[in-house]
Amino acid sequence: MKIMNAKHPFKTTALKYGLFLCGGLIVLFLIMQLSGLTGSLAFRLLDVVMIYLMVGLALHHYQEHTEEGHSYLRNLGLAAATSFYGMLFFALFIFIYLSYLNPSYLEYLRENAPMGPYLNPYIASVLLVVSGVGVGMLSGFIQALKIKQPEF
Q: Within 13 A of 89's CA, how many CA atoms are on the CB side?
């Protein structure tokens, strides 16, 4: 059966996989902090892999569990919504982390990041959402091409 029990399967799927994305990004961030790999670009690229996987899982879940039309634009919208929810909650976590839990990490970023002197918890959070949604859109673009579209 391909019908979800939710009233709004698009929003439900985006929120569900957005929360999974947020959880995965928090785990990766904490591993990075605990292992001292904050400056490792290769390790931070795992964030891109996490976004790509969660967007793909959201698209697959939505396609398997709904009978709504699967247009290319709907798939792109789902990718954008999933990455937006995930990055919004992750940005909230980072805001709290930089403001209250570990303000010394913000000082580290100010000294070492390209935009460092201009960073504060607000700007860092906004940059995370914008860049994460951009990666999510690109991931959705790539993965939506692989999903079979209805014939016209």
A: 18
- Domain extent for 23: 10-144
* High-pLDDT (> 70) share of the chain, %: 89
Structural domains of the chain, count: 1
CB burial readout 38-77, b (16+ within 10 A) else e: eeeeeeeeebeebbbbbbbbbbebbbebbeeebeeebbbb
Residue 93 lies in a domain: yes
Query: For residue 24, how many other CB atoms are within 10 A of its CB?
Result: 19
Q: Does this model's pTM top 0.85?
A: yes
Structure tokens at 13: 């799927």
Query: What one-character DSSP code corresponds to residue 98?
Result: I
